Structure formats: C-alpha cells, structure tokens
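Quick one, T. Sequence first:
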Amino acid sequence: MPGPEVDTEIDVVLTTAPNETVAQELVETLVRERHAACGNIIPGIRSVYWWEGVVQRADEVVVILKTARGQTAALLDRARQIHPYDVPELIALPVRTGDPSYLDWVSREASGGGPE
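Structure tokens:
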C-alpha cells in the first residue's frame, strides 16, 4: 500500500438496511447496474437515532459500497429510488489511498454501463 496519502478517484458509500434481504437486493442491484464495483453486508448492528421527536432503536445491517467517483451521484440517486427508508443514510467518503490494483479494479467495474 502506498505510504503517503494521495487523492484517488474512488469513494466508499455507506448505508444501512432493515435486514439482510433488503441489503442483498440493494447491493446486487447497484453492482449489476455497474454503479458500484462491490458491496459488503455487515449484519447485526444496533442503531440509535433521533426520529419523529424521540430516540429510536433498530436492528440494522450496514452496507459498504465501493465506486468510482464519477458514479457516486448516480449510485446515490439509484440507492434512494430503491431504498425502503423514507430518509436513508447515504454517505459518500473519499478514499485517500489504497492498493493500486484494487483501486484500478473498482474504477473499471463501477463504470455505470449497466448490466452486461
């Protein structure tokens, strides 16, 4: 891995889902449509948040998506369309550095070209 930070053209997008089935559908759709190169599904989290005037608690699943920066806006738009939450957590974070081969792969695969 490179030592100094460099600005890559890759973003990591975080979201949550109410369960693994929904998370799987989200990831598969976004990868199939080439908005993301890949996604990770992490079950078993507990979210605590302020919603509708009270503290809420929910068991959720975290989804981590990797995409080319040029696809981030399209990924966020598409995720909003298919996400079951009224206000889904959709946060894009820039990747500062990483393995060059992996970063190149993400750039190639998150092309926005749709299903092949």
